[in-house]
Amino acid sequence: MISPRTKVSSSATLFDDSKALKMDKSVSKSTPPRALTQRKQESLRKASGKKKPFEKAVPQLGNKSCRKRRTSLSDQKPEKKVKTKRNPPTSKSSIVPGKANPLSAQRSENVAKSFVELDVVEVYKTIRKHTGALGGNAAGGAIYGEITRNSFQRVVDYLKLNCNFSESSLFLDVGSGLGKPNFHVSIDPGVEISFGIELEEIRWHLSLHNLKSVLLLEKNRSKRACTMFSVGDITNAATLNPFSHVYSFDVGFPPDVMDKYATIYNLSDAPFLVSFHGPRKIIDLYKFAVESMGQIVTAMAGSSEVHTCYFYKRHSQEVCTRVNTRRSSIHAEERIDPADEDPDKIPNTLLSVDPIFQSGFEIINRGRDGVLAWIESFFGQQLCTGRTRRQKASSARLAKEVKYEQRQLQSYYRVVGNKRAFDDIAEGYGTYNVKKG
């Protein structure tokens, strides 16, 4: 045994050192570089003189190296983006513009119909705003026939499809009430004349208020006037000329009025009739010279009652001879444009019109401003008090323009134990057998 104090020869120490170096090399070769500790990697890096590669260190609280690294990153300036210059477009561009394909016939018709529906809705809103859905003096419920907008739109669609209802048509509403059907057809399809006659004076005043408010709408300032309302009893008319389409909610018409109404229609030239009575009453009972075409179901505003609307057309051959002793001989003449003629000098023979409708046609031919002026003067002079002599004279002149025979509403219905006031007239037509004695 060798003691630690014994001296070892230099050759032995060199041998041991070389052996240790060989062992270190073998260990370094056998272990992969991933297994090197961080301290050895740092020593090797310093020996080689290479810089420490950038490593994304997870930030930790109290780590000064991370703080320094953050500051160094913040000092770095971002790289500027190089703007690429776009070449100006040449005269002959390779881009092909999109083609504007025209709408199909069905699509263009649907678009036009949607705009018309918006105008109709606006008119109904205006009427509801000024006079309500039913108007004043509507305690009788559905007797006034204030039809809903959607229901009457179905009536208009049927007329346009089957009854030649177009812009050249002349529409008459017997018992017009607030005038909703007249305003509707003045927009869709936009008839030439839309005329309404009403027996009750209060509802006639309401229709004139609605006419004024509709004419004052912004969209109607450039349109011609084609709507007018008159007050009177339809039994006082000789014919229904010159109207082409006659509409009436005649559910509440008394039988004697329907009988006289049939006689007047048979003496007229109107080819189409719209009624709420079935063919059994219209053709068999009241003897209208028409034949049935079709029917649709409608609903009434307020009462929500359901009624069937029937469409009729005149027979091809004339049923009765025309006897016209009550009207003057009026010949058809060419229509004169109101812009080219003084409104006060428009002749009475402008159209072949029955006298009961003549004053309304004259007011329509004055134009939109003339209709508005007539309505304002009527309400200002007929209904206001404290008038001057000139105003009274003017109101008397206006009263002559609207001639009608006033008849009490009770005279249309039979009173128990009494004879109706109209029975004497109806007896001449042979419809009723009045008991005498």
UniProtKB/TrEMBL annotation:
Residues 1-106 are annotated as: Disordered. GO terms for molecular function: histone H3K79 methyltransferase activity. Residues 1-13 have a biased composition (Polar residues). Residues 16-27 have a biased composition (Basic and acidic residues). Residues 142-205 form the DOT1 domain. It holds the Pfam family DOT1. This is Uncharacterized protein AlNc14C53G4108. It comes from Albugo laibachii Nc14. The lineage of its organism: Eukaryota, Sar, Stramenopiles, Oomycota, Peronosporomycetes. The gene is AlNc14C53G4108.
